[in-house]
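Message: I would value a second opinion on how I read folds in token form. Give me a protein, with the fold worked out from its sequence. Write it directly below this note and I will take it from there.
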Amino acid sequence: MQTGQTVRLKFLMSVLFLAILCIAGYSYRNKIIFNSITVDVNDNRVVEFGTSSYDSIAMLSNVSGDVSIIKDVNTNKVGEQVVLFEIEKSNVKKHVPVSIKVVDSVKPIIELKKDTVYVSVGKSFDVFSNIKSVTDNVDGKLTFKKNEEIIDGDTNYYTINGFVNTNQIGKYSIEVKAVDKAENISSKKFNVVVTSHGRENSIKST
């Protein structure tokens, strides 16, 4: 004849066994659902620096669940990044990391004061006086480098090509060339006309 303690023990064992079966069944069910969560990722995962309206979810297709973004792309930072998506199906969640690249394909902006500068013969002229600014959307203000200081692989600078002989009447071409850190290159030219009649624009010569 079983004692009350034995009966209680068998009852607890039965409850524990049923609990284990339920947990195992629930885990198996969740595993099946987890493995059934699928998504296709587009091959084009490149976004331009500074894009404010980029929709990361647009990278995905054929998603078998509801999508939310755990960690989005920072379009104000150039380089490789990881967007972390969460896909939920039947209360089961799956995290999907997707790599994306933020690029800078915008060339530096060179602003000149005039396209043509007139200088009286014999007067000095500083080519920098006709350069309003040289800037980049990512790198900001670019610094000047002499041609002889530039080596292969240098970026984030601007330089000036050309020479003006203010003691010789004639037309001289000056080129301003800029290179940003992403190796985007831009250039602008302006003319310096040395004359004998003293026709000058608003840029002062000394």
